[in-house]
């Protein structure tokens, strides 16, 4: 996510490295690189120019403290302006009502139907609402089928009427059905086109005027960059939507849509899609996104994802096993499953400060855990619960059964032992206190 933009910002700030103070000359040189980085990211030219002008104005008006280098100060100012450019703060969705009505709009292929399912799952699991999905694409039977598949996947009912060719009528009937059957939020998935056309705009406008939604969202593929911004502008002029949803952001190395869209249409980005799974949806936080663009990671989002998968009873059970030195391969396997639920590995690594740069040329596959899972699944129940009995002949059998090598099995055994030792040490408060004292004694620097 935003990999190209992050690298170019890094290079831009290197211009100031070694300078003792901020001057008009070195600021101009840095901001020339920043503007180029923004334009390469497919950011609107006017937006890029206004952004760099604001950064320049603030930078030249600041006194550089002795404890802060010019480069650090420029990063601080750029971070603040990036955050403001993307909306400043996160904005909640308005799903309240009897029922709340959310209208989805956007072009065909933007990921509207899939996102409707993700949003339904989000409202169901995070806000304890009972959503009803509504299929209002009267042109593509496949779209109705797709929504039914998505609904079945997440356990959410789908309302459709294949005989009715009036989307506004289907939507209204769905709302009446929701009122009679205890649904407290209705998500209306509408038809898209390959391009903006008058018929499409008339239709979505009619649906909106008929059902009077509490929230209208515009869904757009972030990878289309400046085209996404132009499409958003065209839709906003007709239906005055409340917020933007950026899909496929996990594959967007440039970031032009995320950086331009708020300044062009003056509507907040409310959600982002970060993968194919139904759980791959995040509330958009401008400050956290600015952190990630500038290579600062996103620890808050990482912790939130971990907490979502956190099972208190399971944690207590694991803690007891660690203290008794009984942590086994069954527990190890369960921990892997929890990590996998948090999202794709490359995205998770990018949330750790400094790791994006460190792991830049390392290819992290989403199926990185597959060989480990295969090895563990090739063990007998007795071997999983008592790893000490896994001798050379057992390791050879496990390697053969999992389609891996004896070296892979040996490597996993060592990783498992190291993990068990570390967890045992961390569960002991005295050991943790000793580690913290040693850490402070080194001036807070971790040994390499």
- Helix share of residues? 55-70%
Poorly predicted spans: 438-448
Architecture of the largest domain in CATH?
3-Layer(aba) Sandwich
Biggest beta sheet attributes: 8 strands, mixed
As laid out across the biggest beta sheet, the strand order is 3-2-4-1-5-6-7-8
Give me the secondary-structure category.
alpha/beta
- Please indicate the percent range of residues in DSSP E strands (runs of 2 or more): 5-15%
Q: Calculate Rg over CA atoms.
A: 26 Å
Instruction: Write down the CATH class of the largest domain.
Output: Alpha Beta
What is the fold named in CATH at topology level of the largest domain? Answer: Rossmann fold
Give the name of the CATH superfamily of the largest domain. Answer: P-loop containing nucleotide triphosphate hydrolases
Mean of all residue-level pLDDT scores: 78
Task: Describe the model.
With 448 residues, this protein is α/β, with parallel strands linked by helices. It folds into three domains: 3-85, SRP54, nucleotide-binding domain (Four Helix Bundle (Hemerythrin (Met), subunit A), Up-down Bundle), CATH 1.20.120.140; 100-296, P-loop containing nucleotide triphosphate hydrolases (Rossmann fold); 303-441, 434 Repressor (Amino-terminal Domain) (Orthogonal Bundle). Helices cover 57% and strands 9% of the residues. The protein is built from 21 helices and eight strands. It has helices spanning 3-14, 24-40, 45-60, 70-85, 112-126, 141-154, 167-180, 198-211, 226-239, 256-265, 286-293, 299-309, 312-323, 329-341, 345-350, 355-358, 370-377, 381-385, 392-402, 406-426, 429-441, and strands spanning 100-105, 131-136, 158-159, 185-190, 215-221, 243-247, 269-273, 281-283. Strands 3-2-4-1-5-6-7-8 form an eight-stranded mixed sheet, with helices on both faces. Strand 7 and strand 8 (281-283) form a beta hairpin. The chain is flat and about 70 Å long. The two termini are 28 Å apart. The model is unreliable at 438-448 (pLDDT under 50).
């Amino acid at each position: 996510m935003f990999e190209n933009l992050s690298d170019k910002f890094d290079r831009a700030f290197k211009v100031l490295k070694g300078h003792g103070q901020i001057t008009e000359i070195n600021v101009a040189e840095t901001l020339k690189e920043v503007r180029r980085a923004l334009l390469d990211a497919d950011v609107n030219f006017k937006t890029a120019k206004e952004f760099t002008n604001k950064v320049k104005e603030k930078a030249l008006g600041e006194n550089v403290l002795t404890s802060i280098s010019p480069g650090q100060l420029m990063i601080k100012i750029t971070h603040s302006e990036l955050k403001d450019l993307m909306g400043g703060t996160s904005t909640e969705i308005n799903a309240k009502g009897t029922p709340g009505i959310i209208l989805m709009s956007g072009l065909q292929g933007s990921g509207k139907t899939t996102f409707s399912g993700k949003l339904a799952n989000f409202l169901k699991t995070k806000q304890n609402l009972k959503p009803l999905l509504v299929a209002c694409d009267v042109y593509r039977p496949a779209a109705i089928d797709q929504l039914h598949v998505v609904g079945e996947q997440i356990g959410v009912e789908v309302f459709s009427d294949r005989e009715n060719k009036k989307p506004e009528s289907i939507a209204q009937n769905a709302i009446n059905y929701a009122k009679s059957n205890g649904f407290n939020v209705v998500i209306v998935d509408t038809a898209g086109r390959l391009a903006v056309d008058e018929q499409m705009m008339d239709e979505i406008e009619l649906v909106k005027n008929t059902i009077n939604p509490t929230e209208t969202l515009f869904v757009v593929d972030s990878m289309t960059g400046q085209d996404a911004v132009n499409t958003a502008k065209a839709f906003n002029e007709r239906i005055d939507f409340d917020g933007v949803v950026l899909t496929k952001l996990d594959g967007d190395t440039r970031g032009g849509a995320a950086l331009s869209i708020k300044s062009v249409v003056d509507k907040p980005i409310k959600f982002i899609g970060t993968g194919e799974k139904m759980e791959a949806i995040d509330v958009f936080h401008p400050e956290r996104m600015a952190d990630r663009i500038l290579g600062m990671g996103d620890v808050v989002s990482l912790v939130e994802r971990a907490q979502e998968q956190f099972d208190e009873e399971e944690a207590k059970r694991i803690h007891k096993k660690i203290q008794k030195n009984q942590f086994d391969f069954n527990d190890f396997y369960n921990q892997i499953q929890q990590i996998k639920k948090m999202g794709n590995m490359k995205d998770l690594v990018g949330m750790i400060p400094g790791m994006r740069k460190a792991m830049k040329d390392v290819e992290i596959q989403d199926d990185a855990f597959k060989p480990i899972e295969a090895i563990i699944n090739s063990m007998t129940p007795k071997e999983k619960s008592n790893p000490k009995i896994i001798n050379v002949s057992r390791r050879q059998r496990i390697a053969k059964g999992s389609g891996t090598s004896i070296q892979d099995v040996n490597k996993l055994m060592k990783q498992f032992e190291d993990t068990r030792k570390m967890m045992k040490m961390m569960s002991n408060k005295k050991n943790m206190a000793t580690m913290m004292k040693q850490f402070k004694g080194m001036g807070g620097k971790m040994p390499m």
